[in-house]
Amino acid sequence: MPDNKKINWDHYIAAIWRSNRKALKPISDVDLIDFNVLVGVEKQIESVCLNTERFLAGNPANHCLLWGARGMGKSSLIKGLLNKYHQQGLRVIEIPKDDLVNIIDITDDIRGIAKKFIVFCDDLSFEDGDNSYRALKTSLEGSLEKPPENVLIYATSNRRHFLPEKMSDNLLRTHIDGEIHESDTVEEKLSLADRFGLTISFYAVSQDTYLKMVDTYFIGVNVDRERLHKQAISFATQKGIRSGRVAKQFYQDYDYLVSPE
């Protein structure tokens, strides 16, 4: 494996793992986001920021799992952290979930570097028979070797426990002296999520909050707000969900919506 310590972390604030190269690729054009555009998730932002600030200050901090409704800004929150804290030494390394077998090697290479790293895995989930989560479990708590003090793992997922929970899992439960005992398979699924000390949930938003999300994209734009909101509601109804992602998609499609020929 290439020596990822060769990346100039004073110059680059983020990198992404490229499986074809078997190396980290520094990102020169980072997609940074201002927290002000993330509406409806203020409490979630506050919790993650407090944890990250403890980490940057050298105090105990937790690995973080952001889970819940799709399109609610989980990934954008990570971009917001990098935007807010990169001048304080925060760096982010993104690793696709299919490459998690390499996560231990990555954290080994950045151990001891005078920066604080968030290793970020987006849309984390595992199917039956996928054992790559075991490398993640080791990175979260270490093995015989302590995990690096300058690394935290932040992950996003639509599932609380990453793996699909099936009816067959329930059939493997046993009852002993009135207590429910999970099968080894179910227990292993639960233990992975439990290793994230900070777990933050995201839920679908109300119509009012959704419209506030829409309005953030039209600040300073001279539009008929009543008409705008009616079209935004119709757009979300067609998508089947109200979220920040849908609000952005509506904004990107708005010229077409207002002037159909």
UniProtKB/TrEMBL annotation:
A Pfam family reported for this protein in Swiss-Prot or TrEMBL: DUF815
Organism: Methyloprofundus sedimenti
Protein name listed in UniProt: ATPase
Span of domain AAA+ ATPase: 60-187
Superkingdom, taxonomy of origin: Bacteria
